[in-house]
Design goal:
By secondary structure, the protein is of the alpha/beta class. 39% of the residues lie in helices and 20% in strands. The chain has one domain (21-154): Chitobiase, domain 2, CATH 3.30.379. A 6-stranded mixed sheet has the order 2-1-3-6-5-4, sandwiched between helices.
Length: 159
């Protein structure tokens, strides 16, 4: 068994000024389990593309850029937890989702199949969504993009 420190070392993160430094990122958080890599990571790449398009279309300079990140990095590093983030995947498989879902309200749900958490006033720069089956997770992504992405990006702070 691997004993991770409570905080992952800062020296492992890109330096300030680097385009991939934490202060320049919107994190798309996926679980580190194999099922998460198989099901949620492709959704994370799709979401990153849609986020990049929405950020580019926003017109404000210096908005943070999307980057996929595993839940282990997100929950174990204070600087990363302070960044705008969207977690994809069930809370029992993604610690990032569990962290965010406990702090922000449910904005959309369909029975026990689809759930989206975000601050409806967009004052908190965190969101998460999941589905119980792979097709439900994909539907949750589509709902998030169609209903919430534009306003979520509009509320992003400038880096």
């Amino acid at each position: 068994m691997c004993n991770l420190p409570i905080e992952l070392p800062e020296r492992l993160l890109p330096a300030e000024g680097d385009e991939h430094a934490p202060d320049a990122l919107v994190l798309v958080v996926v679980g580190a389990q194999l099922d998460c890599e198989r099901i949620d990571r492709p959704l994370a790449y799709r979401l990153c593309r849609r986020l990049a398009e929405a950020i580019d279309g926003d017109g404000r300079p210096d908005l943070p850029r999307p980057m996929p990140c595993t839940d282990l990095w997100f929950v174990n590093n204070h600087r990363l937890r302070q960044r705008p983030a969207i977690a994809i995947g069930r809370p029992d498989a993604n610690a990032g989702t569990a962290y965010l879902a406990s702090r922000i309200p449910t904005a959309f749900a369909v029975d026990d199949r689809i759930r989206i958490h975000l601050d409806p006033a967009f004052e908190q720069a965190g969101a998460c969504f999941w589905g119980t089956r792979p097709e439900d997770a994909e539907a949750a992504l589509d709902v998030f993009v169609d209903r919430y992405l534009h306003d979520w990006v509009a509320a992003l702070p400038v880096s």
